[in-house]
Amino acid sequence: MPRADQVLEPTSDPAWVLEQVGYDALRDSSRQSRFTVSNGFLGVRGGRTVNRQLHGLGTPYMLVAGLFETIGTDQPIPGLVQVPSWLRAHLSTPAGVPALHSDDSHIHRRTLDLRRGVLLTEGRLSSPSGLVISVRVLRLVSMSDRSSGLQLIQFEIEAGAGEVTLQTGFDGLDFGLNVDRLDEDRGVWHTTRLSHRLAIADLATLTLDGATIEANSLGPFSRAWKWHARAGQILWFERMVAVACSSRDVDPIQAVETSLHKSRTLGSRNCVSRHEAAWTERWRCSDVRVEGDPGAQQALRFACYHLNGAADPGNEYVSIAARGLTGNDYHGHVFWDTEIFLLPFYSLTWPEAARVLLMYRFHTLDQARAKARRLGYRGALYAWESADTGAEATPEHAIAADRQVVDILCGTLEQHIGADVAYAVWQYWQATGDEAFLRDAGAEILLESGRFWSSRAILEGDGLCHIQQVIGPDEYHERVDDNAYTNVMARWTIRRAIETATLLRSRWPECWSVLAGRLVIDDSELAQWSTVADTIVTGLDVATGLYEQFGGFFGLDPIDLSQYAGPSVPIDVVLGRERTAASQIVKQADVVALLALLPDEFDASTAAVNFDYYEPRCSHGSSLSRTMHALAAARMGSSSVALSFFRESAEIDLGDTKVAVDGGIHMAALGGSWLTAIFGFAGLSLLPAGLGFEPQLPSGWESLSFSVQWRGRQLSISIRQSDGTLDATLDAGEPMLIVLCGKQHEISRAGETRTFSSRR
């Protein structure tokens, strides 16, 4: 068990910490996103809490996964609500509030300890009477008990003497939620929408030299302690909090009582130890180590930290929003980001988390069926923006960057989400071999997705099937026909649905009989699906190898983006929406996304000609874009190009040159960093009998090491640049194959390490 003062010390290895010194009002909101602590259920932004109002610092608000309330009146949509923040602490003296002098602002330090999953802050307060108090704070939301949070504050009296009052409390007790009950240390709220209930309980103590100072209650969750301060005193403030939401089988009031009792029994240091042990296990399974490139190392650790903190493997009824629990941009809605950019990380490092994220899609399948019916199609089409129920939550209108009111068509036309979910289901099945999931949930998602696309693609006079009036990933172009990404992914989905039907019929015939009967699928329908897949338009020009992004794209204005390299505003603001739509400027990876996600569908020359054509036309108007270009380039062997995109993507959340993350960090960009390193530079692929690797490390990367799980095995991989070797250790599980640059190798027993050469 760590000593009390040890818990306030960050990890000594600088590769495991993210640090910021001083205060910058312009950047603080983005930094609060960056320094968020989260555990998949609770997310608390990284703002300062002690005497923060003196310096204009915003409240470090908290978000709870799945707690949605209807927002807006003209177009009511569900949005994550900010819940009461439990972190406020305020010191004062009779002579006046201790104030941080402006010339001491450099003393304030904020440190995110990635290894331990804690936020540490420190600073110094002083009063006109000469009282000087140093403050050190630890904040965490527990990875071992997701309903609990902990705040530890050490006050050290460095100089002076006098009466001091510490007042603590919650912020936002009546913000966004309806109050049912507010007691001294218990609170219950409910939402108007669906009547979700939230309960919070806390326990706070202040000790001096081991003796407890009695508190005066000032109201709900508000307390005050007074003492006579003198130089040399060290005081400890501890606040434990428990949070619970209503669910199908849990009373939130009873849940917080149980959680708080558990924390009280363990004590704060044991709570910290268990939290750190849980993070140690997560890092054992998911750490990525890069030698020779400190910037890449920091980016990957930062990405894995937030990815690990975004998932809750115990809840099948929530998913991960575009900004996780680090901010409320996009109202906490779930997009295709989760399945395409995040699921690979979880499938290969945390299968339990991947499974519940896909079960969220299974539980919302009826809403996907309803959307498909509403649009006139069969099968299931998932919401473009999804909240708690899975109903379509995309706003109908928005204010564009040029301040114009624009219609949002994504909720009806950006339909590739139906293939993206199927892609994640199939990839999870290939990575885990989870037969129960496939039989009980995954197969139904795949079959209903295949059915949708088979009804969506219409046979026309040319003898081919077309998908008209959609929006592809490139959202600058709306109502297009035969978008290459949509059509190719639709074809892929239909074929996986047919493959699933064949697999169920042969391996689990009784399961197939029940499911086919319930869904009313027969052989004639499966044959129709096959015909659609074989005749769907892809946009491929066989003469050039180019895929036309959509019908008519090649005839649009080929504007040279290099002429607009200066402005930092989106290109559609610079040129206007109409001119952008009439051009070949692409918002984000579209055809390039196909190269990244379905590399087996393209030979090397086809991949190269399409990347070379579309890359200069992409304005990267989405945070998802650069990481997809990085993955595609890495898989093609263009490591230097991939590394450049990798760095640019990492800067979105780690750089301070733009205030880009006020509303939360970009989860998809973080997932894409991991994808680029593992599927790109390490060249990992999922094979029927094992894992394949085609390593191509970028210049400067001396080695790349990581852990993955595959079908019940735990595997450690280390790739060295100098001698072109790959070390593979089977940490646990049955024998398996490693296919390195086309050559098969077997690891025959757990604990065995084998070294292979990747040089041909």
Description:
One of its GO terms (biological process) is carbohydrate metabolic process. GO terms for molecular function: carbohydrate binding; glycosyltransferase activity; hydrolase activity, hydrolyzing O-glycosyl compounds. By secondary structure, the chain is of the alpha+beta class. It has three domains: 267 residues, Glycoside hydrolase, family 65, N-terminal domain (Beta-galactosidase, Chain A, domain 5, Distorted Sandwich); 395 residues, Glycosyltransferase; 79 residues, Maltose phosphorylase, domain 3 (Sandwich), CATH 2.60.420. Helices cover 33% and strands 24% of the residues. Strands 1, 8, 9, 10, 11, 13, 14, 15, 16 and 19 form a ten-stranded antiparallel β-sheet that branches. The chain has a five-stranded antiparallel β-sheet with strand order 20-27-28-29-32. Strands 7-12-18-17 form a four-stranded antiparallel β-sheet, with no helix packed on it. Strand 8 and strand 9 form a beta hairpin. Helix 6 packs antiparallel against helix 9. The longest helix is centred in the middle third of the chain and has 24 residues. The chain is globular, with a radius of gyration of 27 Å. About 1% of the residues have low confidence.
What can be said about this structure in brief?
The chain is an alpha+beta fold and 760 residues long. Strands 1, 8, 9, 10, 11, 13, 14, 15, 16 and 19 form a ten-stranded antiparallel β-sheet that branches. A five-stranded antiparallel β-sheet has the order 20-27-28-29-32. Helix 5 packs antiparallel against helix 6 (351-363), helix 5 crosses helix 20 and helix 6 packs antiparallel against helix 9 (417-432).
